[in-house]
Amino acid sequence: MTRRLTVLSVAYPFAPVGPGAVGGAEQVLSMIDEALVEAGHRSVVVACDGSTCAGELVAIPAARGPLDDDAVRATHAALKRAIEQAAAEVHAEVIHAHGVDFGAYLPDNDLPLLATLHLPLSHYPRHALLPARPRTWLNGVSASQMVGGPRGMPRVADVPNGVRLDRFEPTAAPGRRYAIAVGRICPEKGFDVAIDAARLAGVPILVAGRTFPYPAHEAYFAERVAPRLGRGCRFLGGVGPRRMRELLARARCLVVASRVAETSSLASMEALACGTPVVAFRVGALPDIVDHGRTGLVVDDGVAPLAGAIRDVAAIERRACRAAAEDRFDSRQMTRRYLELYERLASLDAGEPMSCSA
């Protein structure tokens, strides 16, 4: 460490942060927070009530009730005030935003700000990808995600995600009887397709995750997921980190039936770290994460191809899955790159450019 930094991390305001968070962005933020503290830096996290962190938490009230336009605007306004106040009070040197809505609460200060794009570029409004705020840079989490971005986007080099390998390990006696699908319960994650495929394959499936109070998400669960429960499909809801590790390690496979181009997949990385192969659609970064035939099976869209992969995945060697995770998905690689990036951002003079190769 060249010098002690103070980094202000800003979470998506509608989901709690912590090691057991459901969302990938929240988990990445948590790993960075832990790495900052372990390296002797000062980590300050602005997140909603119910969050936990290794550093210092600045909590904003969690939104209550349906997340309609008024509730979202009120939360964004409260978050912007909290960011500006916290940055001034702790003398932050770098701000790092993780929410898909970061463009709605960019602070009115001149601190260098990094926004990590955890979702496909199509999820972000154009003004967020081309921010008017000076000293604001963006990074992606995979090369496939950033293809087709608008000209002039203020990018720095992508930082691929990773997972804490010390928290995931293969079990000595995997059951391999059931498949599992995990994550936020929303239309783009394709849980209904995963359930249908497992049923067609004759394999029981567990579904673990939370439904956030967006009308479209609640309607998806009520109309597309809930009617499919039973007859070999069990819904677990949100589960804690320890239970999730056990479920992943004992599963036949993780099923990733995403309907959008995934930018990354922490769930896939966690499964591989447990020695559990992944069955996924050939979309976004998933073919780069899952080595077809070695750490899982990547198939074309459709219930039947996915069902065939669920049946065939038992042939995958679990040792190869863990070896791939150790080689490619160690979170220490990710956090080291972020800490190096923070040091460069904090050392920039006002108006000095940051190259994409940083």
Give your account of this protein's structure.
The protein has helices at residues 24-38, 69-90, 126-129, 191-201, 215-225, 241-250, 266-273, 286-289, 303-312, 318-328, 331-347, and strands at 6-10, 42-48, 56-60, 94-97, 113-117, 136-140, 179-182, 205-208, 233-237, 253-256, 278-281, 296-299. With 358 residues, the protein is an alpha/beta fold. It has two domains: 6-162 and 330-347, 3-Layer(aba) Sandwich (Rossmann fold); 165-328, Rossmann fold (3-Layer(aba) Sandwich). Helix 7 links the parallel strand 10 (253-256) and strand 11 (278-281). The chain is globular and about 60 Å long. The mean pLDDT is 93.
SSE layout:
Blueprint: E1 6-10, H1 24-38, E2 42-48, E3 56-60, H2 69-90, E4 94-97, E5 113-117, H3 126-129, E6 136-140, E7 179-182, H4 191-201, E8 205-208, H5 215-225, E9 233-237, H6 241-250, E10 253-256, H7 266-273, E11 278-281, H8 286-289, E12 296-299, H9 303-312, H10 318-328, H11 331-347
Parallel strand pairs: 1-2, 1-4, 2-3, 4-5, 5-6, 7-8, 7-10, 8-9, 10-11, 11-12
Helix pairs in contact: 1-11, 4-9, 7-10
